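thought: user wants a sequence for this fold. calling inverse folding tool.
action: design(structure=
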């Protein structure tokens, strides 16, 4: 039996979703990226090709409070990106889970964003 390349499968899922999901200045794309140690989130305006807001577990506002990439860390990153989006006047976004399953870290980040006032 052949081994499944999980990274390649995730990339295929992400490209399939990205065909339909694009961000604008009024409704940017909230994209999530996970590494083995950290969680990253960005609000992206695809039409202008700009990153509007960013947050991650490497951010000084979050770094001292979290240890590793877990649900608690993702919740803090989600709350931080929602607060930064509110500062810039962004209320709506399109959620791009990056080809990852919607549970655990990804779901915690999305829920924290919703609690912070970001709607998608």
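)
observation: tool returned 120 residues.
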């Amino acid at each position: 039996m052949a081994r499944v390349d999980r990274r390649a499968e995730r990339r295929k899922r992400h490209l399939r979703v990205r065909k339909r999901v694009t961000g604008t200045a009024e409704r940017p794309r909230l994209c999530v990226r996970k590494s083995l140690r950290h969680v990253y989130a960005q609000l992206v305006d695809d039409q202008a090709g700009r990153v509007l807001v960013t947050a991650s577990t490497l951010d000084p506002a979050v770094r001292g409070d979290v240890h590793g990439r877990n649900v608690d860390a993702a919740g803090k990153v989600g709350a931080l990106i929602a607060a930064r989006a509110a500062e810039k006047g962004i209320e709506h976004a399109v959620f791009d889970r990056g080809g990852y399953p919607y549970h655990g870290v990804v779901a915690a980040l999305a829920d924290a964003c919703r609690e912070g006032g970001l709607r998608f």
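thought: summarizing for user.
answer: Here is the designed sequence. The beta strands are 29-34, 39-45, 50-56, 94-96.
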